[in-house]
Every structure is written in C-alpha cells, then in structure tokens.
Amino acid sequence: MLNVTVMVEVHPEFTAQYRDAIMRHARNSLSREEGCLGFAVHVHESDSNRFFLYESYRSRRDFEEVHVPSPYLAEVEALTAPWVRTKELFLWEQYPRTGSS
User: Fold this and answer.
1) What does pTM read for this prediction?
2) 20-71 pLDDT tens trace
3) CB–CB of 73/89 below 8 Å?
4) Does 100 reside within a domain?
5) Within 10 A of 51 (CB to CB), how many other CB atoms are there?
6) Most buried of 42, 76, 93, 97, CB within 10 angstroms?
7) Cα–Cα distance between 74 and 51 in angstroms, integer?
8) Domain-embedded: residue 101
C-alpha cells in the first residue's frame, strides 16, 4: 500500500474555490480508480487556508500509472496552481511492506 500526504496552503481569496475543486478531484479519484482506496480532504481547525490531503493507493503502480497521468489530475493542477501559496507532497510506503509496490 502507498499513502500520499499533501499539505497545501492557498491564498485566502481562493479558499472556497480550492476546496470545491479538490473535493471534486477526490470524488473523481475514488470513483474512477480501482486502486484508489481513500482520498480524504482535511482543513486546519484554525486556518481555513491550510489543507491536508490523505490519499491511499493499493500500490505504487496504481498511483504512478493510473492516478498521476489521469486527465482530472492535470485539470485540477492547472486550475488550482495560481491559488496555491505552498504545497508539499510526501509518499509513504506501508511498513512492513505487503503486496506489490
């Protein structure tokens, strides 16, 4: 299993638009990708401009070969890029490793 975490800070004037776009992206990922096991969108309790995305994929292959090249990822990235102040993405492999990666 591969987990992806993304910490995003958006410009305040785009918070609502970013939230709507990333929620739509999460729904697309969950409904269109068999290997996407979870996609949760969180907002910081005292700073609504900070988002934490927690995504789970059955394998690294499901993330790299299905999710990353998907047209809806390219679309949300292009749409939200001007709204994002900072973004950090981390990949986490389950330990101990199980199944294919």
Assistant:
1) 0.91
2) 999 999 999 999 999 999 999 999 999 999 999 999 999 999 999 999 999 9
3) no
4) no
5) 21
6) 76
7) 19
8) no
Residue 73 belongs to what H/E stretch?
A: helix 71-80
Q: What mean pLDDT is reported for the chain?
A: 96
What CATH number is attached to the domain comprising 47?
3.30.70.100
Distance CA(48)–CA(88), nearest Å, equals: 17
Question: Packing angle between helix 15-32 and helix 71-80, nearest 10 degrees?
Answer: 170
Q: Is residue 35 part of a domain?
A: yes
Q: Where are the beta strands (DSSP E) in the chain?
A: 2-10, 36-43, 50-57, 84-93
Question: Hey, what amino acid is at 29?
Answer: S
Q: How far apart, in Å, do the first and last CA atoms of the chain sit?
A: 7
